[in-house]
Amino acid sequence: MNIYSSVDNTNIDKIICLFNSVWLNSNKEKKNNLKFYLLVDSIPETIPFIPEYIKERLSIKSLDLDKKWTELLINFNNTFYKKSNWCKNDMNFARFVIFNHFPELDRVIYLDWDMVVQEDIFELTNEYNEIDKIVVAKCRNQSIFDNIFTLEFRPEKNYNSLFTRSNKLKKKYQKGYKIMSNFMKDPMDSHNINGFNAGFYIVSRKHLDNTYMITLLNKLISIQEINNCFNFGTQVVMNLMFINERIYIDNSWNTLPEDNCSNIKIIHYNGQNKPWNVNEQREIDKIWLKYYMYVYPDKKSIKSPIKKNIENSINRKKIINKYLLNFLIS
């Protein structure tokens, strides 16, 4: 089973924490079949510590885009992140070119850098083997339409109220349906199909085919330039890909942290308040910290710079063994 992610080189430690959470909670008899793939903007001189059992099954490459993809990336970022510059990052876009960089892959699970996996990933084996389908986690009661459009383009839930509104308002609401007609035969169906958060999904090579993706991205950029109608960039792209070729699994595979996270299979610390950036530690951040400290137990502060790789350090091994015992007991 192939797991991949993409991140800037200053946050490789967050991905190692993520991958390690996958490893720790995977079926003991199957976990040796795991392989991890990571795209970074550039390989740093000093890579954070990586446990040997992760390192031996991890491939890291730096993002390498040709002229066409580079221009597309620039246009996409400039068009889609006018109101959300905080989540504008080249490595967010890099998810689309995973198969270009790792040609040996045919099927992968994508995980965002701000996640912790608490469940056995091999529970998804059946879905993983449905190679013609994109697998996504339900986004509770949110439809594709609600997911991808800004507030001003969403009609009211009571659709009958549209008939009592002014022609100007009717026209405004109809813009969304006109845009959706580029992607669906009946744009009203976009209210009946679940949207999803793009922090988790399973895709095959055909779903990220270069020709298909370039065509789709250029179409979305053109629409956004004219209408400025879409929410966050990559979320929109993923929600409009292969709408009729999806398998929806329980939303617990991609859920924001809650007061009780015991039933959440993948905790997604989505948004700006990452567990390593908050001023005061929240209860929900302690879960992430537990996994982080498993790999980096000698790090006094999450905000401090990562210490240099001391993989062969006897002291580190002692600390890790001690922390492993505490981790298993807790």
Question: Any low-confidence stretches, pLDDT <50, length ≥5?
Answer: 304-319
Look at the structure and name the CATH superfamily of the largest domain. Spore Coat Polysaccharide Biosynthesis Protein SpsA, Chain A
Which CATH architecture of the largest domain is right?
Alpha-Beta Complex
Question: What fold name goes in the CATH topology slot of the largest domain?
Answer: Spore Coat Polysaccharide Biosynthesis Protein SpsA, Chain A
Q: What is the first-to-last residue Cα distance?
A: 28 Å
Outline type: globular
The chain-level structural class is alpha/beta
Q: What are the secondary-structure elements, in order, as H or E?
A: EHEHEHHHEEHEHHEHHEEHH
Domain count, please report it.
Answer: 2
* Main sheet strand line-up: 3-2-1-4-7
- Biggest sheet character: 5 strands, mixed
Gyration radius over CA: 21 Å
Strand runs, count: 9
Helix count, per DSSP? 12
Mean pLDDT: 86
For this structure, the quaternary state is single chain
Strand residue content: 5-15%
**CATH top level of the largest domain?**
Alpha Beta
- Tell me roughly what share of residues is in helical segments: 25-40%
